[in-house]
Specification:
327 residues, mainly alpha, ABC transporter involved in vitamin B12 uptake, BtuC, 16 helices, 74% helix, globular
Length: 327
C-alpha cells in the first residue's frame, strides 16, 4: 500500500469521524427532553434504553453482517447482574451498572467463539440457543433469580448520592440518556476508525478481507464482545430504573423487537437504532392506548407498508440525517 493511499484512507476516516452540525443539537435536545417533556419521562427512559440495545445489535448486524436472534441473552444478563448486585451487595447504581457491563462483556467474550464458524443459519440457531439456555437457567434458579415471579425487592440508592429515583421517572430518564450518550460516542468512535473500516470490509466480503490480511476471527470476536457489553448496559439500566428483573428480559420477543427497530431505522448507521426506538415506542404507546388488544396488528401493518413503500420515503427526516452522518 503506497503512502498516498494510506494518507487518503486516513483523511477519509478523519473526515467521517467529524461530528455533523446537527448532531450536537440533536443530543442537546435529547438531554433536555426529560425537563421539556417531564410528563413523558417514563417513556423517554424506555426509548433511551431500547435505543442503546438497538445500537449494540447494530454493531454486529450492521457493521459485520452477523444476524443474531439471541441478543437478549446479554441484555438479560446485564439486567439480572445489576439487580442482584443492588439487592445482595450494594445499591449504588453506577457501580451496579459497571458490574452489569462487566458480566455481559464476559458472557459476550465466551459466546464470541460460537459465531466464528458456520453459516448464517448456524449463527442464528446458536445465538437463539444461548438466550433460551439462560432463560431456562433463570427460571430454574428461582432461589436466586425469583424464577417466574421475577427478582423483586430491588431498591436502588440515589444517583451520585444525591438524586433519588422518583416515580415520575425524570432521574431515570436523565441517567439512561447520559449512559446511552457515552456509549454511543464510544461506538461511534469505534465504527469511524480503521477498526470499523475493517469490520465493514469483513461484512462486505469475508474471503477478500482475509486475503488482504485482515484478522477476521479476532475482529468478529472483539466487536461481538463489545456489543454484548453495551447490551448488558441497556439491561442494567432497565433493572435499575424499574427496580425489577424478570424472565422476559431473556425472551425471544425482546430479540425480535430490537431487530424490528433496526428494520425501521436502518442498519450500518448508529442513529438507525435511535430512530427505530423512537418510532416503535411512540407507536406502541399511542396505539396501545387507543386499541390495547390490537396494537400489534397496526405495528405489523406499518412494517409491511414500510417494506413495500420504502424506508426513505416514510422516514425522510431520518434519511436526511443518515446521508449527513453515514459512515
Amino acid at each position: 500500500m503506497t503512502q498516498e493511499l494510506k494518507a487518503s484512507i486516513q483523511k477519509s476516516l478523519h473526515n467521517g469521524s467529524r461530528w455533523k452540525a446537527w448532531e450536537p443539537v440533536f443530543w442537546l435536545l435529547v438531554l433536555a427532553s426529560p425537563f421539556l417533556l417531564g410528563s413523558h419521562a417514563l417513556i423517554i427512559n424506555e426509548i433511551a434504553i431500547v435505543a442503546l440495545f438497538a445500537i449494540s445489535l447494530d454493531l454486529v448486524l450492521g457493521y459485520t453482517g452477523i444476524v443474531s436472534l439471541g441478543h437478549a441473552a446479554f441484555f438479560g444478563m446485564g439486567a439480572y447482574a445489576a439487580a442482584l448486585f443492588a439487592k445482595l451487595v450494594m445499591p449504588d447504581p453506577l457501580v451496579g451498572l459497571l458490574v452489569a457491563i462487566a458480566v455481559s462483556t464476559l458472557l459476550g467474550a465466551l459466546c464470541s467463539f460460537t459465531i466464528l464458524r458456520g453459516s448464517d443459519l448456524t449463527r442464528l440457531m446458536v445465538t437463539l440457543g444461548v438466550a433460551l439456555i439462560l432463560f431456562e437457567l433463570a427460571n430454574k434458579l428461582d432461589w436466586l433469580t425469583g424464577g417466574a415471579d421475577g427478582l423483586q425487592g430491588v431498591v436502588m440508592g440515589p444517583l451520585l448520592g444525591k438524586f433519588e429515583f422518583d416515580l415520575a421517572g425524570r432521574t431515570s430518564a436523565c441517567y439512561s440518556i447520559v449512559v446511552a450518550l457515552i456509549l454511543f460516542v464510544l461506538a461511534r468512535r469505534l465504527t469511524r476508525s480503521t477498526f470499523g473500516a475493517t469490520l465493514m470490509a469483513v461484512r462486505d466480503n469475508r474471503l477478500r478481507a482475509m486475503a488482504i490480511g485482515i484478522p477476521v476471527a479476532s475482529r468478529l470476536a472483539v466487536i461481538y464482545t463489545i456489543a454484548a457489553g453495551i447490551a448488558g448496559a441497556a439491561g442494567g439500566l432497565l433493572a435499575q430504573t424499574t427496580g425489577f428483573a424478570s424472565l422476559d428480559v431473556f425472551a425471544f420477543d425482546r430479540s425480535a423487537d430490537v431487530m424490528l427497530l433496526l428494520v425501521i431505522g436502518g442498519t450500518g448507521w448508529l442513529y438507525g437504532g435511535i430512530a427505530g426506538a423512537v418510532v416503535f415506542k411512540i407507536m406502541q404507546d399511542v396505539i396501545s392506548t387507543i386499541t390495547p388488544q390490537y396494537w400489534t396488528f397496526w405495528i405489523g401493518l406499518f412494517l409491511v407498508v414500510l417494506m413495500l413503500v420504502g424506508r426513505e420515503k416514510l422516514l425522510r427526516p431520518w434519511t436526511w440525517f443518515k446521508k449527513g452522518g453515514a459512515s
